[in-house]
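Hello,

Our lab assistant flagged a job as stuck in the queue for most of the afternoon. It eventually completed. Since we weren't sure the result was trustworthy after the delay, we are filing this so someone can double-check. Below is the sequence as submitted and the structure that was eventually returned. Let us know if re-running is recommended.
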Amino acid sequence: MAAYFIAQYVVKNPDLYREYQAGAGPTIQASGAELVAFDVAAETVEGTPPGPQTVIIKFESTEAAKAWYNSPEYQAVVGKRLEATDGFAVISQSMHAG
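-- returned structure --
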């Protein structure tokens, strides 16, 4: 079952965030995942999100998403995003109709 890594945040340090992007991009490609959305100005229709930047990455499974997130390659760069942004990230499974 497909799973999605969804992050939403505000970028506080654009230079550090660009370093993160340069390092994270190849890890996403190497994992076989698909970048579904990268929106720097997502429109809020309910609630109060941490920021307008939204990223959605599709993986073949929750296990694949966690393997990417916990990989040494991604862990080497994720700290830059965590330092450069305020927000959150989740992994969510897709639903299949019965």
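-- support follow-up --
The delay was a queue issue, not a problem with the job. The result is valid. The first strand starts at residue 3 and ends at 11. The domain at 3-93 is CATH 3.30.70.100 (Alpha-Beta Plaits).
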